[in-house]
Amino acid sequence: MNMVERKKRIDSLRSWMHKEGFCGLIITGGDPHMSEYVAERWRSREYFSGFTGSAGMLVFTDRRAGLWTDFRYWLQAEEELKDSGIDLFKQGVPGVIPYIDWLASELKEGDRVAVIGTTVSYKMALEWKERLMTRGIILENCFSLPDRLWPNRPQPPSSSKYILPLSLAGQDRKEKIQQVRELLSLYDCGATFLSSLDDIAWLLNIRAMDIKMNPVPLSYCWLDDEATVLFTVKETMEPGMEEALESDGVKVKEYDEVSSFIKSRKVNSKIYFSSERNSWNWGALLKEQAELYDGLDITSALKSRKNPVEIDCFHKAMILDGVAMVNYLSWLKKAVLTEKLSEVDVAEKLRSFRAAQPGFVDQSFSSISAYGPNGALCHYDPQEESASLLKPEGLYLIDSGGQYRGATTDITRTLCLGTPTKEEIRDYTLVLKGHVALSRAQFPERTRGYQLDMLARQFLWNDMSDYGHGTGHGVGAFLNVHEGPHSISSRPIDRPLLEGTVTSNEPGIYREGKYGIRIENLIHTVKAGESEFGTFLKFETLTICPYEPILIDKGLLCEEEILWINSYHKRVFDLLSGLVEEEAEKWLRTVCAPL
């Protein structure tokens, strides 16, 4: 977006604020389903600011504007907000004022602040409202911004919706619905309302591509003792889908009928409701119907524990993804010597390798294809007009993934395209040591992710280094690449790593202006055994792809680490040998040789 167009958009926004009597405006960039990745229709933060990251809060007053975002997007935001008049506030840096406090400091008692109620969670809206009220500032729910402020705004997505077969889901929807009903009774609740798209997709065994690279349908779901109701765009359902759902007791209504349905529904008990995963609008409406019991969506905890069929799908998908990755990495090592290739070119090449695999549906997110200094931009998104050209020197980081029928992959590898420096080798090896330490972890049942996070950081900390992102996130089974409720990070999230969960293992290091290094596998939590001290768990590594041996300093590794890496590489070679291209197999044999 050029400066003239951006100024025009911001000026129109402020004109609207002035006309409506608002002195402040908060734009979350979210959608009505509190999704991490949103369809183009709801990318208002990007439309008005030019910032393309997936996380951030955009705040306007009549004189100033600010964007708050985390470590992953600091460098990216600095570039994208240049000359915009929007100040960047780096969340997580000591002394950086929170956006609500900043807004309160910019306004005076009696001022009104607008927020699009459909795009902010009920929990967050109430917190904002209370904090602003202490300064006499009024937060108001504006249902939407006028369409004239966003000419030719994209329409809501409407991809084809279909049933995921039991051979991939592993559990039928009737059993899942019954599980939810039984758990609702434990909380003395008679109903629940779901806005989260991946939760609804999991519960009802349905899929679509309404959110790019996320196989989920635009929908809501109501579930009580008597009925389960899916709200979606009926005309986009595959033939026979509605009948199949209704035969399992799931009524189907149009997407825009949800509000009238809730208003007409008699509720004689509490409604189980996630204030974090539902919008301000739904919270306000449901509260009029009955008392709300606030908690994590029951479906979120259930879907995080993969059943044996889902885990089998992960294993199969990892072989397919490993073939694509090895074909790609071996090709890239040669191609960079003779071809003129940009970060976008090579990312597209990886997509083509994945697309050649049976069962491939789409990427699981936009590939982070980052060469040299761009690797230090944690969530770098290369663009055709500004992408760097790769050279036979330096480091290249590729963070990517695929959606395969039944499973989702997410993998990061850092490749050396020339002769590495001592600093690059040391950094890579320290990251790898942390990655291996977490892979080898054995821990008591009910252990939280934050209790394991230091395993991945310890060697970097000893070197007075660190990284600003989490070490691991949950991954869906042919669903969203990021899912909760568990994680591995320094944040004290009170959710254990339960048997059956699939999580990423991705420590890294980022040197601004030089390079970025990240190594990522997916790991499956499995039972290790029992003793007089209780049940213990460990991780099974799912991802099948070699590391970069030229960047490994064997002298920094202990014997157990060397044995683990050699064993992993033997497994990679044994599983992929004979499946990859001929030239790729030669490369694979070399990189998988024992250290």
What's the arrangement of secondary structure elements?
Layout (H helix, E strand, L loop, with lengths): L2 H18 L3 E4 L16 H6 L7 E5 L3 E5 L4 H7 L6 E4 L8 H8 L5 E5 L5 H12 L4 E5 L19 E2 L2 H4 L3 H14 L2 E6 L2 H8 L1 E2 L12 E5 L3 E5 L8 H7 L2 E5 L3 H7 L5 E4 L6 H10 L2 E3 L3 H7 L3 H31 L4 H13 L4 E4 L4 E4 L23 E6 L1 E3 L2 E2 L2 E6 L5 H18 L2 E3 L8 H10 L9 E3 L8 E6 L13 E4 L2 E4 L3 E4 L2 E11 L2 E8 L17 H18 L5 H10 L4
Parallel strand pairs: 1-5, 3-4, 5-6, 8-13, 11-12, 13-14
Antiparallel strand pairs: 1-2, 2-3, 7-9, 8-10, 10-11, 15-18, 16-17, 17-20, 18-19, 21-28, 22-23, 24-27, 25-26, 27-28
Written overview of the protein:
It is a single chain. The chain has 595 residues and is an alpha+beta fold. It has 3 domains: 3-149, Creatine Amidinohydrolase, Chain A, domain 1 (3-Layer(aba) Sandwich); 162-304, Creatinase/prolidase N-terminal domain (Creatine Amidinohydrolase, Chain A, domain 1, 3-Layer(aba) Sandwich), CATH 3.40.350.10; 320-569, Alpha-Beta Complex (Creatine Amidinohydrolase), CATH 3.90.230. Helix content is 35%, strand content 22%. The chain is built from 18 helices and 28 strands. Strands 4-3-2-1-5-6 form a 6-stranded mixed beta sheet, with helices on both faces. The protein has a 6-stranded mixed beta sheet with strand order 12-11-10-8-13-14, sandwiched between helices. Strands 21-28-27-24 form a 4-stranded antiparallel beta sheet. α15 (422-439) runs antiparallel to α16 (453-462). It is globular, with a radius of gyration of 25 Å. The model has no long low-confidence stretch (mean pLDDT 96).
